[in-house]
Amino acid sequence: MATIMNSQLCVQLFVAISMFSLCNAAVTKLWVTYNTETSIFEVSDQQATDYVAVASFVNTVNQTGWAKLDVTTQAGPKRKYNDSVQAYAAGFVEGHITKSLMTMHWANTGAWVCPEPLTSQCIQIKKFLESNLKWVLENIKTFSTTSPFWHHVRLFLEQTAGLQDGFAGMKGQLNLNIDVMSV
After folding, report:
1. CATH 3.30.230.10, applies to 26-168
2. Taking the CB of residue 177, how many other CB atoms lie within 10 A of it?
3. Tell me, what does this protein do in biology (predicted)?
C-alpha cells in the first residue's frame, strides 16, 4: 500500500514539476514587416501594427519533448499582402525563431548523411533533387496562374525559401531560390 502511495506521489510531483516548467518556459515572439517600396522583409521582436506574419515560439523540448510554434499571417478579405508575400513571411519568421532547434535537428539526424566533400552517392542525390526542383519551377512558371495546384506548390516553395533565408539570416526578399542541400 505504501509503495502505491509513493508511486502516486511521485507521479503527482512529476506532473507538478512539468506544469511549473511549462509555465516558466520563455515565449519568444517575432513580427515580420514588409517594405513595399524596397520589397524587403524584416524581423523584429518589437510588436508591429502593420505586420505580414507574427510567430510565437515556446521551446519546451527539454520538459516535454516538444516545442510550440504558432505562425499567423494577415489573411482574409481585407488583407493587405498577397499569398506569396504571406507565405514567404511565414517561412522567414519560422526560420528565424526556430534556428536553434533546426540546427540541433540537422546535427542529430542529417549532418552525417552527406558531409562535405560530398560522396558520389550524395552528388547523385543532389543532382536528382536539383533536377526535380527545376521541373517543379518550370511547371510553376507555366501553370501557377491558371492552376490552383501549381499556385499552392509555388506558395509552398516560397514559404520554404523564406524558411531557408530566415534560418541563414539572409536578407528577406521574396524568391524561389531553394538550395536542396543546404543546412
Report:
1. no
2. 12
3. Putative phospholipase.
Helix (H, G, I), strand (E, B) or coil at 7: helix
Cross-strand bridge partners of residue 172:
41
The cell for 70 is 504558432
pTM of the model: 0.84
Q: Is the peptide bond before 115 cis (omega within 30 degrees of 0)?
A: no
Provide the 8-state DSSP code for 96: H
Output the CA–CA distances (angstroms, integers) from residue 168 to 7, 11, 107, 151, 160, in the order listed.
Answer: 47, 42, 16, 26, 12
Tell me: the pLDDT tens digits for 67-106? Answer: 999 999 988 788 899 999 999 999 999 999 999 999 998 8
Parallel, antiparallel or unpaired: strands 66-73 and 53-60: antiparallel
Q: Identify any residues that bridge with 53 across adjacent strands, giving them in sequence order.
A: 32, 73
Domain locations along the chain: 26-168
Our CA angle for 2, 7, 8, nearest 5°, is 100
- Strands 66-73 and 40-44: what pairing? unpaired
Packing angle between helix 120-143 and helix 148-168, nearest 10 degrees?
130
Determine contact, residues 91/130, Cβ cutoff 8 Å: no
- The C-alpha angle 178, 130, 168, rounded to 5 degrees, equals 25
pLDDT higher than 50, residue 183? yes
